Amino acid sequence: MPFPELPNGHALFVLLLTVFALYLFRRDDIPLETSCVVVLLILTMGFTFAPFHNFNGHLEPMEFFSGFGHEALVAVCALMVAGQGLVRTGALEPIGRLLARAWKVAPLFSLLLTLLIAGVLSAFVNNTPIVVLLLPILISVAVRSNRSPSGLLLPMGFATIAGGMATTIGTSTNLLVVSVAADLGLERFGMFDFLLPASIAGGIAIVYLWLVAPRITPERQAVMKNTSPRVFTAQLHINEESYADGKTLAEVIGKTDGMMKVKRIHRGSDATIMPMPDAIIRAGDKLRVTDSPDRLKEYEQVLGARLYKAGQEVNEDHPLTAENQQLSEIVVTPGSPLAGRSLKDVSFMNQYGLVAIALHRADRVVDMHNKGLGKVTLHVGDVILIQGGQSEIAEFKKRGDILVLDATTDLPRSHRAPRALIIMGLVILLAAVGLLPIAISALGGALLMILTHCITWRDAMNALSAPVVLIVAASLALGIGMTETGAAEYLAQAFVSVLHGAPPAVLLSGLMLLLAILTNVVSNNAAAVIGTPIAVSVATQLNLPPEPFVIAVLFGANMSFATPMAYKTNLLVMNAGGYQFSDFVKVGVPLVLLMWVSLSIILPILYNF
């Protein structure tokens, strides 16, 4: 079969722009948002100054902006907002506690359980919060077992990507492929239409990630060390068996190596005693203390006391929670009351009702010489991470004498977790049974998350990712250009020409491998949108059903295992685990080949090729 002649000028322009776009998306020194806007501008200006007419009539340049209102983008954004409800309410944290307990009993089985849970959750929820949830758990497990976390973090991250392939809402890539295919005239895929091949290939991937990947991953030093920087106010109940009974407060604090800070001593139902060093602690007293969860539990053990918060004993089933608490960052500026002084000098906690958690100094690591953060002399330019109630931080901002960065983060509202889970379940159920398109059910779920106070409008805005929005819009615009100008048909003819005479199964496998290579070099969303019209054109020219070719594109575009920049969760894992680029190649390339071979066998069997 001869190689097709060059396409018309407009198609050639779109093809060259696509290559340029892929180059821009690959550049780390150019913000992705900038690259997307540049591509959109070049595309629209090109068709404005050189109008294009085809059998459908005149192609209006404004059509390239239709991606901003496309149902795929609406669904992606709505799911990001709804998923934020699970994060903000801490709805996934019970799963984390379950895994943490399991690791103490059977580490090898727990790794498999972690991979399975990560994969299953990622089929229905954006995998970024899942990775964020599991990272500190696995690092903590590694620290307790005196082992490197390298063999745990990378398999977990890859498991979430593999699990995301299973449903139409598993990743934004899936939503884009399904939506673009529907725009091209195909019958819309149901939520679980490709669950079977994804589950088989995903199961093979899980076995590889469980038994092989940890053994071939080079040992690296994790960057994340302190995985729980938040602080909590709680009460230590002193009983008759406690070390503190009959001791002075100074002796009790000394027992904790001087680390415990007692704010109040409550005695009986009404009496409150000032925490003076010579105050005698008695059985029945309640010491009000503020610190990190690990230290509070350590004080409980050292003193033989019982730890309570809000009248509830603290344990694994009822962990410490901080309602309406926020994290924020403040900067020491010239003229600030903190410049040249310590937090203790200005009575920071008592004056502002806020707790300092961590300190960042740009030029070097701060050596506290075991004297604690409160006694460190602060320099101009220091950034301090603080925690406090929402109202306290709002009031702190109004004072204006200390610069507060726009980086405030709310802590989980755990009592709203059940309603967040119910809402997310309804979103999935309504879309799965076909009562509502996913764009509508997800949008309704996002609104319910706000109306039920699982998140605020600010949370919703923070959940939206500008790079994701713009890459989807730019990719859809390129897809429109390729389809309308005939560029996609030309690429399909070239692809068929190169593999002329090959069986359909080989063509399908080759297309999937092409997308797998492309997605590890550029954005997976861009690869998906560009590959989908090519897949439909290939199937049309071969007079074959297009569905398996579209699914091949979907699976290939999701094989983002071989490079850290292939998927955003890869970057999270890379940073947390201290991995290098070569580690992803070493572990990810075999996984790409394994899934490609598996699906190259499974798909032809399922579709009778």
UniProtKB/TrEMBL annotation:
It comes from the Bacteria. InterPro entries: Cit_transptr-like_dom (IPR004680), DASS-Related_Transporters (IPR051679), RCK_C (IPR006037), RCK_C_sf (IPR036721). Its main location: membrane. Coiled coil: none annotated. PROSITE patterns: RCK_C (PS51202). It is found in: Membrane. Residues 221-305, 315-402 form the RCK C-terminal domain. Keywords: Membrane, Repeat, Transmembrane, Transmembrane helix, Transport. Gene3D superfamilies: Regulator of K+ conductance, C-terminal domain (3.30.70.1450). Pfam families: CitMHS, TrkA_C. The chain crosses the membrane at residues 6-25, 32-52, 72-91, 103-124, 130-146, 158-182, 194-213, 421-451, 463-482, 494-518, 549-567, 587-607. It is a multi-pass membrane protein. PANTHER family: BASIC AMINO ACID ANTIPORTER YFCC-RELATED. This is SLC13 family permease.
